[in-house]
Specification:
It is a single chain. By secondary structure, the protein is of the alpha+beta class. The chain folds into 2 domains: about 15-170 and about 205-245, endopeptidase fold (from Nostoc punctiforme) (Alpha-Beta Complex); about 260-405. Helix content is about 50%, strand content about 15%. The protein has 15 helices and 9 strands. The strands form 2 sheets. The protein has a 7-stranded antiparallel β-sheet.
């Protein structure tokens, strides 16, 4: 009988103290979100973030990083072009992580979160499970599933949806706006992304969607409030500090640049130059050679981009499907490469072929303008139209002037007739 009472007492003690023991186990953790500023490489323009777990027993600091990918792998470019880039969750020490980002001259900010012991324990368990070899990989998506959205979702999960609740308001900018403002310092990347992305990134989004950007996660965490012990609410972020400064790095733009006038200016300049060369080429060999020499690189660049945009429609890049810019950056511009050489050599058939290519491209570009008034076409591509429409117009008119047959010579005067 005595042994039974002892066993019962032990069972009751375990039942009462087990939750407390589990809570104390959670108290040994400190959870922070680490936000890294943008870098110089195109892949680093949008910044990065991670979750830092600091353990008291044993004393260690582990960074859980959802943004790991095979940067030096030969498969990186093919996987990227196919829209099948794999990322994975890796772990590293805080010291090593800070050293890496300091070498890249990128800011590093820490936000300590005031989670409960149970929330910290659950988050650590989920991160460890996610970091297992069979769970660590995921298919990367720029806007919907990236390093930042994974951090966002992990924090929101342990908060019971409070982060999503704080981020339910409509965003002031679209995915395209954010993409362009963060790449404005790299004109080639700015143009390529602007031309390749379709209407899917022009739709209204919420602050929750904006948190594909690490800085938006950082800002929104400051707005979240959680219950306190007195029955009220307190801020989720209990402290913030900057671990690494980035001297000399320009601050982030608040909005994309107003680039439409620049696009239009470049398009008009190219169009006017091609028109002027076409008109002079009938009388000037040097103008004709220069016109042909310009057609070759223009046809190559525009044609390759057009083919690429068409091929992206068949990949997993959902934001590149149905690109209306295929009416502006036409794949058949590649025909200008061979025709341009013929134009420089004054071959009539090449001149006629180049004229037809330019005219068909001009018609396609004009059709793209007309489609803008229809409700089914919502892609924000006014900048690309402003660039390509005057270019095609100038090219078509210049080649038309070159292709026109020379005016017949006036008849030679006949012999003078005498008076009757």
């Amino acid at each position: 009988m005595f042994r039974r009472w002892i066993a019962l007492a032990v069972a009751i003690a375990l039942f009462v103290l087990a939750p407390r023991a589990r809570a104390e186990d959670g108290d040994q953790y400190t959870v922070s979100v680490i936000t890294f500023g943008p870098g110089d490489h195109p892949f680093f323009k949008f910044g990065h973030n991670a979750i830092l777990i600091e353990e008291a027993r044993p004393r260690r600091q582990i960074v859980f990083n959802f943004g790991t990918f095979g940067f030096g792998s030969w498969t990186l470019l093919p996987e990227f072009l196919r829209g099948r880039l794999s990322y994975w969750l890796s772990t590293s020490s805080l010291e090593r992580t800070v050293r890496h980002y300091r070498a890249e001259n990128r800011t590093v900010d820490q936000q300590v979160l005031g989670l409960t012991a149970a929330q910290k324990r659950d988050l650590v368990a989920a991160l460890r499970e996610n970091a297992l070899p069979e769970n660590m990989y995921y298919r990367y998506d720029y806007y919907l599933d990236n390093c930042s959205t994974r951090v966002r979702d992990a924090i929101d999960r342990v908060l019971g949806g409070r982060l999503r609740q704080a981020a339910g308001a409509a965003a002031r900018q679209s995915f395209r706006d954010h993409t362009l403002r963060l790449t404005a310092d790299s004109p080639h990347i700015y143009f390529a992304l602007d031309a390749a992305m379709t209407a899917q990134i022009d739709q209204p989004i919420t602050v929750w969607d904006e948190m594909f950007l690490p800085v938006r996660v950082q800002e929104t965490l400051r707005e979240v409030r959680v219950p306190d012990d007195a029955g009220g609410e307190r801020p989720l972020v209990v402290s913030e500090r900057r671990l690494v400064e980035a001297p000399g790095r320009a601050p982030l733009r608040d909005a994309p640049p107003r680039s439409l006038p620049y696009y239009a200016g470049i398009g008009v300049a190219f169009g006017a130059s091609l028109l002027a060369l076409g008109r002079r080429a009938r009388r000037s060999r040097s103008a004709r050679v220069l016109l042909g020499a310009l057609l070759v690189p223009l046809g190559l660049v525009i044609g390759v981009l057009g083919v690429l945009f068409a091929l992206l429609w068949a990949t997993d890049h959902r934001v590149a499907h149905g690109n209306e810019n295929l009416l502006q950056i036409v794949p058949w511009a590649l025909l200008l490469v061979g025709s341009g050489i013929g134009v420089a050599r004054a071959r009539p058939r090449s001149i006629e072929r180049a004229y037809r290519v330019a005219t068909s491209a001009l018609v396609a570009s004009a059709l793209g303008v007309v489609l803008q008034v229809l409700p089914w076409f919502r892609q924000e591509n006014g900048r690309v139209i402003a660039l390509m429409l005057p270019l095609w117009a100038g090219m078509a008119l210049g080649l038309r002037a070159l292709a026109k047959p020379p005016a017949p010579a006036p008849p030679a005067p006949g012999p003078a007739e005498g008076a009757a």
